[in-house]
Design goal:
Layout lengths: L3 H19 L7 E3 L5 E4 L4 E4 L5 E5 L6 E7 L5 E9 L4 E9 L5 E8 L16 E5 L7 E7 L5 E8 L5 E2 L8 E6 L5 E5 L2 E5 L4 E6 L17 E6 L5 E5 L4 E5 L5 E6 L5 E8 L2 E7 L11 E5 L5 E6 H6 L7 H22 L9 H28 L1
Length: 383
């Protein structure tokens, strides 16, 4: 017969594993427009730091809709991809949206289980978009599809899931979470904790693989090591090495240098460039996907880093602006997303920012019920 200690340990272990799996995907999206305005995701809400340094809510969060990455085009439109999960059917749903710098919202693809092949927020300088298919965790295939502005879709690279450099038709890829495009028509990929390059001739090569993770005490060993990346006009690739708490620069000769060592309790998630300036999105290693608030650092040309936006501090001081001209946009955004959600996916359970509280209550109730049942059963057995 299972004793009480074993039962409680089982329930607690299950609960910890369940919660950890639900919080292993933080946001790494950060971009800069031509007006030097910064946009970044805090997983659900997208924020903006304007040219005067004011922190604004740009795109209001929708509970259960995760925005991991962002993109910007030459007209300063911001693109995002919403990810949501329906636990009843164990299905994933996605949608693509864009917003102008003034906050005008457009839903490009409504919430759907299957996005059109080739459609994503990853866009090169010619307007082609690239997507990774299939969108699942089966790890059988990993294909990169290219979609032209005219809607023509072709298999660009990849096939069987795995790891293999060489010609793009024969190359193998794994879990690609970010793409960046260089002026020389090269594409850089964040692929399963490696940085890989597809040059203009279609050759795939690995330009960086992180050293053995130092695994600082405050970073979960199950987390990814690498998240976001960006390329500057000189073809320097900047890499957010979350696992080792540092921002790296890889030059055109594949030489690696450290640009930033994060402060205690912070670690890089995403990166963007603007001229000779670098912007870094940081999160707290143990809570970066639990909505406690990311922050943004600016690294100037003299390598001096300055915190220019901190959601934790702003929330504590109630210093996040919500100007009237953004209010109507945000309400429209939420209504638009909610309506498409109900039409496309039916009734859903979106827990969003309240997930941890609800899961905690559920876990506690399960533990209490099982323990109570065990005690009653034990007493009956004894009698």
């Amino acid at each position: 017969m299972i004793n009480l200690k074993t039962l409680i340990l089982f329930v607690v272990s299950f609960f910890i594993i369940f919660v950890n799996n639900n919080y292993s995907h933080p946001a790494w999206g950060i971009v800069v427009d031509r007006q030097n305005q910064i946009y970044f995701s805090d997983l659900e809400t997208v924020y903006k730091i304007d040219a005067q340094g004011k922190l604004l809510i740009f795109r209001a969060g929708v509970s259960g809709r995760h925005v991991h990455d962002l993109a910007v085009d030459e007209n300063d439109n911001i693109y995002g991809l919403d990810n949501s999960y329906e636990p009843q059917t164990q299905k994933f749903f996605r949608s693509i949206w864009k917003m102008s710098s003034k906050g005008e919202f457009t839903e490009i693809v409504p919430l759907t289980e299957n996005l059109p092949i080739g459609m994503s927020i990853w866009r090169d300088f010619e307007g082609n978009t690239f997507s990774v298919e299939p969108y699942n965790n089966e790890k059988r295939e990993s294909k990169i599809f290219k979609r032209t502005p005219q809607g023509k879709t072709t298999l660009f690279a990849g096939g069987i899931y795995g790891y293999l450099d060489g010609k793009k038709e024969n190359a193998k890829f794994g879990n690609i979470v970010d793409m960046a495009f260089a002026l020389d028509n090269s594409i850089y990929l964040m692929d399963s904790d490696t940085v890989r390059r597809i040059d203009k001739n279609g050759k795939v090569s690995t330009i960086f693989r992180p050293q053995t993770q130092q695994n600082p005490k405050n970073i979960d060993s199950s987390s990814r090591k690498l998240y976001g990346l960006a390329v500057d006009p000189q073809n320097n690739v900047f890499v957010a090495d979350f696992g080792n708490k540092q921002l790296l620069r890889i030059n055109s000769q594949a030489q690696v240098s450290t640009v930033l060592n994060s402060e205690t309790d912070w670690s890089p998630l995403g990166v963007a460039t603007f001229g000779d300036e670098v912007y870094v999105l940081e999160g707290r290693p143990l809570s970066s996907s639990k909505h406690t608030g990311n922050r943004v650092l600016k690294i100037s040309s003299d390598n001096k880093s300055t915190v220019i936006g901190n959601l934790e501090d702003a929330r504590n001081s109630n210093d996040i602006s919500n100007p009237n001209n953004f209010l109507s946009q945000m309400e429209q955004s939420v209504d638009s997303v909610s309506n498409s959600e109900s039409k496309t996916a039916g009734t859903k359970s979106h827990l969003g920012n309240n997930e941890i509280g609800l899961y905690s209550i559920a876990g506690l109730l399960i533990a209490v019920i099982l323990t109570f049942g065990f005690v009653i059963g034990k007493n009956k057995f004894a009698n």
